[in-house]
């Protein structure tokens, strides 16, 4: 369906060497959703004591090797208050040490036309090596200003236009 030329599969990230990660080359963004069971109120909330919870550090390791312009991470809302906020502080500190300014916001899928009530925290890291504008907070009402703020909606409001709006101009995705 899609042009997969240039895509790679590394499978178990914990078994991939730093050299292999560097071999990926330059990328603009790393998108990651590390497993939520370790932080969810529906799970046992073992956090970084659960090996699934430590996969955030694999994303951080990849970011250190690749040095993307942006990180885009997603997890359950419970990540924010896990271990009285210490877990989220660790994540913020780690990203800061890697040279990222970070913003986050809890968004609910129901506010974006999805028939689910599902709250998630979205974390955006901006590399300090590049100038960029912050994207949050997103407003939750379905106003024209809100749709423009999302930055990837056609003027007809019926689909994506394939462009992401950056401070440096338009960039194809």
UniProtKB/TrEMBL annotation:
<dbReference type="InterPro" id="IPR029063">
    <property type="entry name" value="SAM-dependent_MTases_sf"/>
</dbReference>
<dbReference type="InterPro" id="IPR018117">
    <property type="entry name" value="C5_DNA_meth_AS"/>
</dbReference>
<dbReference type="GO" id="GO:0003677">
    <property type="term" value="F:DNA binding"/>
</dbReference>
<dbReference type="InterPro" id="IPR001525">
    <property type="entry name" value="C5_MeTfrase"/>
</dbReference>
<keyword id="KW-0808">Transferase</keyword>
<protein>
    <recommendedName>
        <fullName>Cytosine-specific methyltransferase</fullName>
        <ecNumber>2.1.1.37</ecNumber>
    </recommendedName>
</protein>
<feature type="active site">
    <location>
        <position position="36"/>
    </location>
</feature>
<keyword id="KW-0680">Restriction system</keyword>
<keyword id="KW-0949">S-adenosyl-L-methionine</keyword>
<dbReference type="GO" id="GO:0032259">
    <property type="term" value="P:methylation"/>
</dbReference>
<dbReference type="GO" id="GO:0003886">
    <property type="term" value="F:DNA (cytosine-5-)-methyltransferase activity"/>
</dbReference>
<dbReference type="Pfam" id="PF00145">
    <property type="entry name" value="DNA_methylase"/>
</dbReference>
<dbReference type="GO" id="GO:0009307">
    <property type="term" value="P:DNA restriction-modification system"/>
</dbReference>
<comment type="similarity">
    <text>Belongs to the class I-like SAM-binding methyltransferase superfamily. C5-methyltransferase family.</text>
</comment>
<dbReference type="InterPro" id="IPR050390">
    <property type="entry name" value="C5-Methyltransferase"/>
</dbReference>
<dbReference type="GO" id="GO:0044027">
    <property type="term" value="P:negative regulation of gene expression via chromosomal CpG island methylation"/>
</dbReference>
<keyword id="KW-0489">Methyltransferase</keyword>
